[in-house]
Design goal:
single chain, 295 residues, Rossmann fold, 2 domains, three-stranded parallel sheet, 17% strand
Amino acid sequence: MTAKLISGSEIARQIREELTGETARLKEKFNVVPGLVTILVGQNPASMSYVTAKQKASKEIGFHSIQENQSETMTEAELLALIDRYNRDPKIHGILVQLPLPKHINETRVLYAIDPKKDVDGFHPVNVGKMMIGEADYLPCTPAGIQQLLIRSGVKISGAEVVVVGRSNIVGKPIANILLQKQKGANATVTICHTGTVDMAFHTRRADILIVAAGKPKAVTADMVKEGAVVIDVGVNRIGMTPDGKARLCGDVDFETVKEKASLITPVPGGVGPMTITMLMMNTVKAAKLAAGIE
């Protein structure tokens, strides 16, 4: 048995089409245009690439979109003042500060300064707390994307044994929390494995749904996977260059061997990655509706 691919690129395209229609409806019916500002401090090449992709997506969907490019020398006080300005701007519904920030700026203070109602990344402790109790306004983008991949691929989540490899605040902890909620598209039994887990393979072999965010290339091999499992590979690791000078990427799962045991599997690239920006767009549309009191 060779696993069927879960195409994050295709599912992201479908969701963006839905969001484009919803944005047009909000504009026409309520005179509401979702507004997103992305703030970039410095010229980190990866960050510049991410911000460009976010801006491109927001404009294609029809948002009011602002890109704030700031100097590496911007002070923390100046950044906090900029965030405060957009917190008070009624045309802006989502504020995203691209990480990492220069070392002289405290990232925690900056993220906490964003109005939780405009925190479309879902990282503010108010939004993390609301997620924990099952009353989230915005889910963190990568975990939300994983949930959508499962739902839209027809995977039965309720009652499933889910094993998450990795306990980061960005992926591991939130996806575990999202999938254990007593809600539609969740209600699973969830185990988290990490660097302190004594026998990881014991746990991963029990998984109906295996989500791997280990941060280590090919950390999960075929002998660690149950026959017929659904495997979601969150990892993106650079393992060299192609002959034409492009980065060669692999996930945290040994794709070539695991695909022979899994029933469904995400590729790298083209799996979880495209979903992250799409969920940012979804959160921004939701923020606009919440601000306008639209159900």
